[in-house]
Write a structure and sequence with these properties.
Blueprint (H helix, E strand, L loop, with lengths): L1 H4 L9 H7 L1 H10 L8 E6 L2 E8 L2 H21 L9 H10 L4 E4 L7 E7 L2 E8 L2 E9 L5
Antiparallel strand pairs: 1-2, 2-6, 3-4, 4-5, 5-6
Helix pairs in contact: 3-4
């Protein structure tokens, strides 16, 4: 689990405690990696694996969620002490091209809008649609599916 790998202690295995334990390191990461202006999505990858892809309806939504979202990715990176390998753009392109082929409506939906689930050919994820627009799409490499 990420808590132990980050040497964070919590009697309840609370991720909140884990984030608090490495708050200074997360802040350093955020200061080193600034979100470019007008960015509505990100891809985080290492080697031959896309760790995560997050796409939002507009740059303002990503900006609003950036600290929380980036901290989750940074927290995961802190526990991975291995040397990071560069990712070939082909790896990202292949995952992105798989997403539309493996979307299906999840029923019943909870709340406003519609939910899509993404499952198949090495990709998993979900998307929230509202008024026929994607509010948030999140996808990840899934080695079990590949």
């Amino acid at each position: 689990m990420g808590l132990r790998a980050n040497q964070a202690s919590s009697e309840t295995d609370s991720l909140t405690d884990g984030f608090a334990a490495v708050a200074d390191r997360l802040k350093e990461y955020r200061e080193q990696l600034q979100l470019p202006a007008d960015t509505a999505g990100i891809v985080v990858a290492q080697g031959d694996r896309v760790i995560g892809l997050d796409l939002f309806d507009c740059p303002q939504t990503l900006t609003t969620l950036w600290t929380r979202l980036s901290d989750a990715y940074f927290f995961d990176a802190l526990r991975n002490k291995r040397r990071r390998r560069k990712t070939n753009r082909r790896v990202v392109r292949e995952l992105v091209e798989q997403v539309p082929n493996h979307c299906r409506l999840r029923t019943p939906t909870i709340g406003l809008g519609s939910e899509l689930e993404i499952v198949g050919d090495g990709v998993v994820g979900a998307a929230l649609l509202y008024s026929d627009r994607i509010c948030h799409l999140s996808a990840f490499s899934d080695e079990k599916q590949a």
